[in-house]
Amino acid sequence: MTDTPTTAESWDAVVIGSGPGGLTTAACLGSAGKRVLVLEAHDLAGGNAQVFRRHHGEDWYEFDVGVHYIGECGPGGLFTVIFDALGVGDRMDFRPLDADGFDTLVYPDFTLRVPAGWDEYRDRLVDQFPNDRAGIERTLAILQTVAAEARSLPGEDRETYDQWALRPLSELFSECELSPEACAVLDHWSGLYAGPPEQTATAMHAGIIGHYMNGAFYPEGGGQMIPARLIEVIEAVGGEVRCLSPVDRIVIEGGRAVGVQLENGERIDAPMVVSNADYRRTMRDLVGGEHLNPATLAWAEDATMTLGLVCVYVVVDIEIDGPNTNYFVFPDYRTDEVYAELDEGALPAGEVPFAYVALASRKDPDNSELCPPGHTNFQIMTLAPRGYDYWGVEKGPADGGRYRRDDTYRERKDDITDRLITAAEKALGPFRDHIVHVETATPLSHERYTRSSEGTSYGYMHSPEQLGPNRPAFRTEVDGLWVVGANTVSGHGIAGAMSGGVFCASDILDRPLIIEMYMGEQLVDPASIPPEADDFDPVEYCRGARLRGKRAERAEAQRALRRGPGPAD
Known about the structure:
569 residues, alpha/beta, seven-stranded mixed β-sheet, five-stranded parallel β-sheet, 20 strands, 35% helix
């Protein structure tokens, strides 16, 4: 670090963090002629859309960090529209999951397959709970209307949305007089946003269901294809994604953001800065309280985060057959009670809150990176207890805490890994004796790589007090500083992050980009994006141009060393 850093370069905009929100913002700004630099602390861009790889001798495994399935990938869907407008729609292929049951819910006494389509979903629920017919029909009618009205244009009638959007989901279940079993099944979606009915705004639940009602999909080639395509756009329009470039602070002069200073002391100037980093860390660490209204800093510090996740990555040396579906395995019908235990820092005795099982090998069977032929690659996930105490540590890795060698941490991780494998076998059948690779990521692992507060993947809790207008807006109180990502008004997930990127860029440019996209306008000419190489690797591409070049030079030097001197030598 230098006390007086020198300016090495300047850009029209700097984006801190390369998650889907930051990359989408950068691509949209670049499409309008802005030169944008994206700075990423990790050696791989993509945020929660990353994959990671493991070698076992000659075998090679690849695992998704956060992309397990998404909706709105058909004609006119959100992702289709965004990628088409940015000129890479023909480079993104989405594989559909089973439309008759993209989720399969496994309870102690029955199994229910969740189909695409509001009517089909309602009928499936009524068949399972005939005594709850009236309550189910009313509940789904309200949820469907809330989801539809959330997308209405300004000035249009939103009577049902206004009545229900910011009320707790538990009030809807109660008013519709649903049985506990029907409530639990209707609440299975909460695993995708990590909140109980008592603390979840009805609009959140309605939006998640609506997102999948035209089908569930998975990007061919894995989640890393999403950031790779966005980076292709950014580079084609004159921008750059630069990995291994952690930002130390946002430079504020005269009350305005004028650039960033990296941890190595280098300063980069830009008249606008967009932070895709964790909102709390952005305000507290990158901006600093001296530049903020005390209420802003207090809100960032005091807001409640969603619970973190535990994910077990598994490869077995057998092919596990079955439909292209995700499994949710539940030990019972409790909802709010389980979340209450987790909020207190405890894991329910003997079980996990649920086990979500996603089989990459079924979703993307032609992806040779996943595992060798005759093997199956899948993930098992659940919610983690709140806080660091459960894991035996006092602070997280983003604040200097050490955890990986801690005995309590290792014991707790081994215990929850075993519980998740046991739960997954209820859906997949016995596979424990066929495991050839298993590793577990905890909220501390997630915090280490993404620096998210408390290691959460989903950002701020989606309670009525923290949803929609009650979340941070893209424009901050500091001139020239913008924020995007899971904690902002657009919400979490790949859909929330990417749509947020479009809306953030729209605010900056004062243009209705999302309307332009849905009207079919071409923001980036596909012909301007160079064709990809025959050996295109989305992981290597997401290193960014600088790191790609260095790695290519190093690889060539190693090949030359193995070849030895040539005849001319």
